């Protein structure tokens, strides 16, 4: 099917988008720099009781070890797991090398973190004209200059390019042409849709939605009724449509994380221990995104679903994890003792500087569309 024969809201808008994702970035850097770690199960992070895995090598992932997992659980899954301390200065240096490679081809670069980014190469700087060739060149240059491998997704929008970059990992590439987009999305488990986490996937399963194709017969109002404003984006994404532009150098407003517990937490000790776990998770994200901020927000949801937030701001940026932890614990102390069981805790760092922001998701199906293009 040609692009011209597609309905108006299913035509692509003439863009060539590449999503580059480094393969097990932190762990791969450690294996590169220490030959004794190559071919072994490696986790970057603390091995202490309350430590958290920041990154896992592919050898470790075979045992089910993954990022943000408590180190104690990771060690049970993989008894031979080797923990190494993170070296964020090194990761940032390598990330800058990679960004320099991107900049040879486009100024339209939207970093998501140290190890992944979108590039719009619709009008590439070298006049190559082929997104596929550019992606191959970028991956080859990354391996040549850093000794690391990257995977790439090449497509006509950000939604599909990001999914495609994960399709042939590690060290692979996947190309989805405009005429292939709707069929590709229809074949995907909804869990692979960007933005669909475990709880949303569970909700979809209850609605008898398991694959992208299960969404195609749903009317647009069904999406907003079940998923609110995000449903507008989901309606379009399920049809292979995503007109969000690649946004260069945008500033994200916050970085955070939260956990919902199977059983409510009541005691001061249990709540402080739970908070320490969240501190580990959020601080890893802060460091990964090279973020600096001066306001910490604590979120708590009680057993009756009442939700409260408390915050504290400094006149300067938070210095380090120790200060982030101390302030977070002081904020939690304000609401202790808990008169009701706590079912959810969360932390957010706001008033950020120096971190890429994910653009807002919105439905733009009625934007003007241009003709198709040649990826090859």
Can you put this structure into words, describing what you see?
The chain has 376 residues and is an alpha+beta fold. Among the domains are: 25-87, MutS, DNA mismatch repair protein, domain I (3-Layer(aba) Sandwich); 254-350, DNA polymerase, Y-family, little finger domain (Dna Ligase, domain 1). The chain contains 12 helices and 12 strands. The protein has helices at residues 25-33, 58-61, 71-77, 88-103, 131-146, 158-165, 181-186, 198-206, 220-227, 230-237, 268-288, 321-334; strands at residues 17-22, 42-45, 53-56, 82-84, 109-113, 116-120, 150-155, 173-175, 254-265, 295-302, 307-313, 342-350. It has a 5-stranded mixed β-sheet. A 4-stranded antiparallel β-sheet has the order 9-12-10-11. Helix 4 packs antiparallel against helix 5 and helix 11 runs antiparallel to helix 12 (321-334). The longest helix is centred in the C-terminal third of the chain and has 21 residues, at 268-288. The radius of gyration is 22 Å and the shape is globular. Mean pLDDT is 87; it is low at 1-11 and 356-376.
């Amino acid at each position: 099917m040609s692009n011209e024969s597609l309905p108006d809201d299913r035509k692509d808008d003439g863009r060539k988008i590449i999503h580059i994702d480094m393969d097990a970035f932190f762990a791969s850097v450690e294996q590169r720099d220490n030959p004794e770690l190559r071919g072994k199960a490696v986790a970057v992070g603390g091995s202490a009781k309350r430590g958290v895995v920041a990154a896992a090598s592919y050898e470790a992932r075979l045992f089910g070890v993954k990022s943000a997992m408590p180190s104690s659980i990771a060690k049970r899954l993989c008894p031979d797991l080797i923990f190494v301390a993170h070296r964020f200065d090194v990761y940032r240096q390598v990330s800058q090398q990679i960004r320099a490679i991107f900049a040879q081809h486009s100024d339209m670069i939207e970093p998501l973190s140290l190890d992944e980014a979108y590039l719009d190469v619709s009008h590439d700087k070298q006049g190559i004209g082929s997104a596929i060739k550019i992606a191959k060149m970028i991956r080859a240059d990354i391996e040549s200059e850093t000794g690391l491998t990257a995977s790439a997704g090449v497509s006509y929008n950000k939604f599909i390019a990001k999914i495609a970059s994960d399709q042939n990992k590690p060290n692979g590439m996947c190309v989805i042409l405009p005429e292939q987009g709707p069929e590709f999305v229809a074949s995907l488990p909804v869990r692979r849709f960007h933005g669909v986490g475990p709880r949303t996937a569970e909700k979809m399963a209850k609605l008898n939605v398991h694959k992208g194709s299960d969404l195609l017969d749903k009317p647009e109002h069904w999406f907003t009724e079940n998923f609110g404003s995000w449903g507008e984006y989901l309606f379009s994404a399920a049809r292979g449509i995503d007109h969000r532009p690649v946004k260069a150098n945008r500033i994200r407003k916050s970085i955070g994380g939260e956990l919902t517990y199977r059983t409510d937490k009541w005691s001061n000790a249990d709540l402080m221990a739970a908070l320490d776990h969240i501190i580990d998770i959020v601080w890893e994200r802060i460091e990964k995104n090279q973020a600096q901020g001066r306001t910490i927000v604590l979120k708590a949801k009680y057993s009756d679903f009442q939700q409260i937030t408390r915050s504290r701001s400094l006149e300067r940026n938070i210095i380090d994890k120790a200060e982030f932890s101390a302030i977070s614990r002081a904020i939690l102390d304000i609401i202790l003792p808990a008169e009701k069981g706590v079912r959810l805790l969360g932390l957010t760092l706001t008033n950020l500087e120096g971190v890429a922001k994910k653009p807002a998701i919105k439905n733009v199906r009625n934007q003007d569309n241009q003709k198709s293009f040649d990826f090859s």
